[in-house]
Write a structure and sequence with these properties.
The complex is a heterodimer. Chain A has 13 helices and ten strands. By secondary structure, chain A is an alpha/beta fold. A four-stranded parallel β-sheet of chain A has the order 2-1-3-5, covered by helices on one side. A four-stranded parallel β-sheet of chain A has the order 8-7-9-10, with helices on both faces. The longest helix of chain A is centred in the middle third of the chain and has 23 residues. The termini of chain A are far apart. By secondary structure, chain B is of the alpha/beta class. Chain B has 16 helices and seven strands. In chain B, strand 6, helix 14 and strand 7 form a beta-alpha-beta unit. Chain B is globular. The chains are: A alpha/beta, B alpha/beta. At the A-B interface, helix 4 and helix 12 of A face helix 4 and helix 14 of B.
Chain lengths: 355, 383
Amino acid sequence: MKIGFPRALYYFDYFPFWAGFFHRLGIELVTSPPTHRQIMEQGLKKASDETCLPLKLMAGHIQALQDVDAIFLPRMVSVEENTYNCPKFLGIPESLLPAVPPEMPVLSVVLNWRKGKRQVLKDLLHFGVQLGKSKAEIRKAFIEGQEWQNRYQDSKGAGWDFEDSLREIEDARKGLTLSQRAVESGSIPSISVRANDSNRLRISLIGHSYLTLESYANLNILQRLREKAEVTLTEHVNREDVKVHLLGMRKKLFWSHAKQIFGSGNKFVKDPQIDGIIYLSCFGCGTDSMVQELLARIAREQHKPYMVVTLDEHSGEAGLVTRLEAFLDMVERRKIHEGNVSAYGECLDRDSNTL
Amino acid sequence: MKVTFPHMGNAWIVIQTLFESLNVEVVVPPANSKRTLTLGTKLSPESACLPLKLNLGNYIEVADKGADTIVITGGIGPCRFGYYGEMERQILRDAGYDYEVVILEPPDGSLLGLFKRIRYLAGTNNSWAQILKAMRFAYRKSVALDRVEDLIHAARPRLPQQMETEKLYEDATSRLAQTMTDKGLQETVRWVQESIRERLQEAQRTSEGLRDPLRIGIIGEIYTILDPYTSGDVEQYLGRLGVEVDRSIYLSGWTGNHVFQGLAPGYRSIRSYPRHAKPYLPHFVGGHGQETVGAAVKFAREGFDGIIQIFPLSCMPEIVAASVLPQVQQAYKVPIMTLIVDEHTGQAGVQTRLEAFVDLLERANLQGTIGKKRGEVLSVGGR
């Protein structure tokens, strides 16, 4: 049996779990090819107009899955205690059914860690039995899936510090992919490592993994930035650091992605080594509309250069390049002049966070 | 301490009653207006949803009247509204408004924390029994308000003097706002019923009789459907076009479900909606996304002529609902229109769309009686 898994949205975070799970069950999991023009166009046709870019891409990827017996669209309600995923995750698969080719069966299972491990296992058992697997097999597969997921998540932050090159993380990821063929390295753009030049700017790019790592949709922003600066991502901050930087909030955030983004963003703001922060968001993202404002406030307090780039299906390359260049120029100039620029106009551009 | 709160349709009447019966000083913000929205939009993150912008506008407008404490309900997601209180607190602090924000929710799941917050608001002079009594009376008032509102929904398309119907509604709400007894509530509802009955009889005597109005169900995000300013007075305008409107969520239905945790059903209980939504959206999606789908199914089954979904731009749960609704539309052959509102929504634009939608529904009704449809393309030229 061959099951298709679209390379979009939760692929970038939770694919290892499902890969491990199905690997153990002896079911082949096929992913769609990396996003290209046609996938995006197909997605735009089938997804509802109001939804956000990642979901539109998801609709495209569903159509790009060929030669599979079924498409797997799990409902990822929650991945940790006391949090939710974005409501749009909760509406999958129903909201994406128009994109599924006719006659193609859709497999779905609820994954809800809010109610604890027992409930997750119960749902998975129910799902696995439908696929004709024994309960013992499913239990083992669940453990294997968790192992893969943990290894993947640990590899993200492991050994990361600003002296180290980004290569190490790439290797860690590749190590994972070598030992486990199913985790493809294609999703993470390869980078050319340069000599550690202390003069290079350090920029952190924060945002949802399905935007920062989706190189087609974000117009290759990661590569473009890396040509000019050292880049750190949300994923490079390990879980403990995120937790520490979430402390002291009067009200806890209740979305897991938002927690990760805010925690790492908060760390980057406080980190004197980071010269500037770029928040990559997409039009209509509900969680970002809150988190980006919370971060902007901290960035303003700490006088950290901060820019929000909003993507949608109409984003143009030239526009993005101009903004990136301008931002980097500004950060660089600020670094040289130590930000000793006349305070004139400081109140006028309170939204731009330039100084 | 002077307490204030954000507007949401008629909710102010209920909240004001609640605080006044506890002898807490309360300042009601001026009604939502263009000014409210403009003030709020200036401070809000640009991509935040419309209710946040209006809430902030409310707080700013009431700041110079001496309000110093904001009361707002909370939640733990996944809808954005759960984070409003904290977001608003930070925005107002940065903008130089010195507000204390009290979010009515169990902080980190601790009921004790919630009781502490209620105690903080109610002061030390009120016993818990008094607080409970006040809450129950406020709830009964919200049920009465909803009954009046629904009566007006039915009266608008049927009564000939439209402005008088609006006046009746206004009088009734202000009477309800002032009364502090159950007797007053019942009498006001009865008074509205009587007035409508009288006018109906009058109308039957003078004109050709009653019109049988089209019926449209309004579904969607609670703030936008409860607050007439936000939706561009959709219900009133539809009423003037001769359409009877029903709504999926009423204020008391929401408070019954959320504040009293389902112990009170409210005027229109929202509890049955998830069951109706099951074939189309079996899982809750935050906010009232699933309720929206369920209400659409329910309205369709009850034979409504059309359904209008309203939500603020970028509302996450409603977007999910909106992408499921075409299937309901197909299954029940009921036209569903989606209206998305934000700070740039103009009333004329909304009205044009409503008129077009109503025309469409009326034509569908006519077709059955005339029994004549348009022929082939080529037959047009031959006429």
